[in-house]
Amino acid sequence: MSDYDAIVLGAGAAGLMCAGVAGQRGRHVLVIDHADRPGKKILISGGGRCNFTNTGTVPDRFVSANPHFARSALARYTPADFLDLVEAYGIAWHEKTLGQLFCDGSARQIVEMLMAECAKGGVEVALGRPITGVDHGDGRFRVTYGERTVSAPALVIATGGPSIPKMGATGFAYDLARRFGLKVVEPRPALVPLTLGGDELLFRELSGVATEVVARAGTASFREAALFTHHGLSGPAILQISTYWRHGDPIAIDFLPGRALGWLKQLKRDAPRATVARTLGAALPERLAAALGERLALTGTLADLSDAKLAAAETQLGAWRFNPTGTQGFAKAEVTVGGISTAELSSKTMEARRLSGLYAIGEAVDVTGWLGGYNFQWAWASGVAAGQAI
Ligand code: FDA
């Protein structure tokens, strides 16, 4: 049996970051992953350009049963810290919108950078063989993969969440955590399209239409684009709100964000002979304007409609209620909400309170960021926190 100072399970964003930091502190580290190459989700992220962080990172852009948990790690490893690393490797980057930073070239550069950091620290990376056993006794963790059994006093769970199983994502982290007596907050797909049924299926005819909206669920709201799909609703505003949405709850869509109350009435005064179709069509994509106008029974000219009818239409267009039947599930979810309970972990080191030497980082933990680079920032920050502790 080979001995290490630490074994990291998962060669993804958090695992590689953690291993590189620990290795460069002189720790003898082994990373194990069943995939045949490291960082597969990094490679497909951000449309192949990896939205690697967000300059607007603040703790309230993360969802967790304990909203304070992420504070410490996020404060100690910031987007600027990761950017320093990216620049030290000469990786060109740009800011898109809303503080989202992307590689100019390819996400591959981020994986190569993390592997180079691991190599600097003498980290061994074992790929392509399944983990068949994990045990703990006498203060050491023993892991069997392929034909080999290895041991270390520290074990880091960094196998992520179950979103996109066809890429090798699994619920392994949760099974392992439960076996060691750690609680798991019910995992749900997040940053995921929502499905519609019943009468709302009629919106299918709008498949491919996108428009800027404000999407609301409970107290959360996001002003970004929404997209009608064959299954229901997608686009950034919907993906964002899906993290907050619960089965059975409605969502409200403001199709005309930023309009002053009474704008239709005002238009009636200014251009009474304008048709409703043309008026809505000037503010919204034409097919959407026609579909909404039809559902609200708005026909003819503005002058044909009473002020009360126009006011009611405005209210509906400003808070159109959809009752999603569900989500498109883990198969299409960018991340998982829920995971290993933060109540089980130290927010400074990510070490389990009940079992010394066991750590959990990244998406495996019940911390989920907004769309836009926040999830990678959590992976880097939690990885660094554990890497400095093991
Ligand atoms: P990650 O999933 O990266 O790594 C886990 C590793 O564990 C994988 O290498 C996997 O093979 C391995 N593993 C799993 N089960 C195992 C088992 N049983 N045995 C051995 N190994 C196992 N975020 C963001 O901030 N910006 C973005 O642009 C994007 N874009 C994006 C696009 C798409 C399509 C998806 C699906 C996701 C994103 N994300 C994102 C989310 C981001 O990819 C995610 O939050 C991080 O990769 C999480 O990092 P982790 O290291 O925790 O898990």
UniProtKB/TrEMBL annotation:
RsdA/BaiN/AoA(So)-like insert domain: residues covered: 188-335
Cofactor: FAD
Gene3D superfamilies in the record: FAD/NAD(P)-binding domain (3.50.50.60), HI0933 insert domain-like (1.10.8.260), Translation factors (2.40.30.10)
Keywords from the UniProt entry: FAD, Flavoprotein
Keyword Flavoprotein tagged: yes
Residue span(s) of domain RsdA/BaiN/AoA(So)-like Rossmann fold-like: 5-388
Keyword NADP tagged: no
NCBIfam families the record matches: aminoacetone oxidase family FAD-binding enzyme (TIGR00275)
Listed name of the protein: Aminoacetone oxidase family FAD-binding enzyme
Species per Swiss-Prot/TrEMBL record: Sphingomonas spermidinifaciens
